[in-house]
């Protein structure tokens, strides 16, 4: 086949792909039609966990408000600091006054009580404790402002140019934003961490506290109970951001990570995306 004919055929393939809302990336064709899977999300992306290959996207670089999916980065930074300084995750820490009575979802921390960093992480990721986020920021970062700077630095290292954090919990702020593409990158990085994966895949946790006998956490992410192979990772909601979800599942050695934002049908959207990914084959 001569070169001109090859170029012509390639041009036809690309034109057809564009007509169906597809584009060609290095590892294959990506669906960008945004509607043919039938999802409600304003922004969505599906990636392969192992390779990072994008399988589907809808407004993936559009500014979005992450709500509590922010806590994926909060947990990642915390775990990386612990590893860097060889600090035990089970160490007991004192809850700072700034973590008591925090707005939104809570694990009802009391200033001065003792709790392990591990249990703070479970409270952060399973029941989305904003107070747990504030406690970790103060304890791990030496202050909220410094910890948020660490979050932003880590996002920059990962190439997440469309992301900026102003707090560790995800409470709404006009200047606290991301994109679903960036959040997928952050989630994929977090899921490389063994401790993180164990936490987000846990159905529940019984946490020890000094102010009371214990507190129980039930994982709010229904993916681990409803979806075959579901193994995490985080839900989020504020009135201003709408429903947000990062979901992951592994089947036959393949992992899918779906991110949906501004998603009225958040779990259904994520399940449809992952179904689509698993059905595509390798």
Structure description:
The strands form 4 sheets. This protein has a 5-stranded antiparallel β-sheet with strand order 4-3-11-10-9, sandwiched between helices. The chain has helices spanning 3-19, 71-84, 117-126, 130-141, 144-157, 180-190, 194-200, 223-226, 266-280, and strands spanning 22-25, 28-31, 43-48, 54-58, 92-94, 114-116, 204-208, 214-218, 230-238, 242-251, 254-261. The protein is of the alpha+beta class and 282 residues long. 37% of the residues lie in helices and 22% in strands. It is globular and about 55 Å long. Strand 9 (230-238) and strand 10 form a beta hairpin. The model is unreliable at 3-21 (pLDDT under 50). It has 9 helices and 11 strands. Substrate binds at residue 234. This is D-alanyl-D-alanine carboxypeptidase. Residues 38-264 form the Peptidase S11 D-alanyl-D-alanine carboxypeptidase A N-terminal domain. The active site is at residues 68, 71, 128.
Key features?
282 residues, alpha+beta, 9 helices, disordered N terminus
**Would you state the CATH class?**
Alpha Beta
Relevant CATH superfamily:
DD-peptidase/beta-lactamase superfamily
CATH architecture title: 3-Layer(aba) Sandwich
Q: What value does the Rg take, in angstroms?
A: 20 Å
Whole-number mean pLDDT:
91
Helix content: 25-40%
Task: Say what the CATH topology is.
Answer: Beta-lactamase
* Number of beta strands: 11
């Amino acid at each position: 086949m001569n070169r001109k004919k090859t170029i012509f055929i390639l041009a036809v393939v690309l034109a057809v792909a564009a007509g169906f809302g597809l584009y060609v990336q290095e590892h294959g064709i990506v669906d960008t039609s945004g509607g043919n899977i039938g999802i409600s999300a304003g922004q969505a992306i599906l990636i392969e966990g192992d390779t990072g290959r994008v399988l589907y996207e809808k407004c993936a670089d559009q500014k979005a408000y992450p709500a509590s999916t922010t806590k994926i980065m909060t947990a990642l930074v915390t775990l990386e600091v612990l590893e860097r300084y060889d600090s035990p995750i089970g160490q007991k820490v004192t809850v700072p006054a700034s973590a008591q009575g925090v707005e939104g979802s809570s694990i009802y921390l009391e200033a001065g009580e003792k709790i392990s960093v591990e249990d703070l992480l479970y409270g952060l990721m399973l029941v989305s404790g904003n107070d747990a986020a504030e406690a970790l920021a103060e304890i791990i970062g030496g202050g909220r402002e410094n910890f948020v700077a660490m979050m932003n630095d880590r996002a920059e290292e990962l190439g997440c140019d469309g992301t900026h954090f102003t707090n560790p919990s995800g409470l709404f702020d006009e200047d606290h934003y991301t994109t679903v593409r960036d959040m997928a990158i952050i989630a994929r990085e977090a899921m490389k961490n063994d401790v993180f994966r164990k936490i987000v895949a846990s159905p529940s946790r019984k946490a020890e506290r000094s102010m009371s006998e214990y507190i129980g956490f039930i994982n709010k992410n229904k993916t681990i109970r409803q979806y075959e192979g579901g193994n995490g990772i985080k839900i989020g909601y504020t009135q201003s951001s709408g429903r947000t979800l990062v979901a992951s599942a592994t089947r036959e050695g393949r992992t899918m990570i779906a991110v949906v934002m501004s998603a009225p049908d958040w779990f259904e959207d994520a399940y449809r995306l992952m179904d689509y990914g698993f059905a595509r084959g390798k």
